[in-house]
Amino acid sequence: MASQSSISGGSGGPSKPSELSKRLDLDGHDLPPSPAPSSPRNGRRRYALATELVYTETNDQYGSSSIPIYQSATFKQSSARGGNSEYDYTRSGNPTRTHLERHMAKIMNASRALAVGSGCDVEEQAGKDEMEETESEIDAVHG
């Protein structure tokens, strides 16, 4: 998982933009933004981690109390050329993954987070050969 705060470098000081940060273009909104990261900067109260972990905002069209798991491989498009839909194919994103990314960004107090399904996806997204330890933070979960 990469966040804006972890791209800046491990020494605490600013670092020059790397190929990785250019590719991810965090300021260009390639990653979904957190809906409401809690921090003094945005005036939202920071709750205890346990509270942040269990509380999620859902805008499900059917009013579900938790986020539904979307398992579809494809999503309906308005035309054969594609539409203006946010999602087209599950591997490139789906509502469940978007919610996970936003929730992770919120609880980590980051502006954005990226969730991927495999190590191959990490290599594709971040260019493993071009990464340095101080440029990115990648966490393995269940693997």
TrEMBL record:
Which keywords does this chain's UniProt record carry? Lyase, Pyridoxal phosphate
What ranges does the record list as Basic and acidic residues composition bias?
19-30
* GO MF entries: cysteine-S-conjugate beta-lyase activity; pyridoxal phosphate binding
Q: Which Pfam families match?
A: Cys_Met_Meta_PP
Is Protease tagged as a keyword?
A: no
| Regions of compositional bias (Low complexity) in chain numbering | 1-18
Q: Which domain of life is it from?
A: Eukaryota
GO terms for cellular component: cytoplasm
From the UniProt entry, list the residue stretches annotated as the region Disordered. 1-45, 75-96, 120-143
Q: Which cofactor does it need?
A: pyridoxal 5'-phosphate
Task: Give the record's GO biological process terms.
Answer: transsulfuration
Which residue intervals are annotated with compositional bias (Acidic residues) in the record? Answer: 130-143
What family classification does the UniProt entry report for this protein? Belongs to the trans-sulfuration enzymes family.
Task: Write the protein's name.
Answer: Cystathionine gamma-synthase
Q: Which organism is it from?
A: Verticillium longisporum
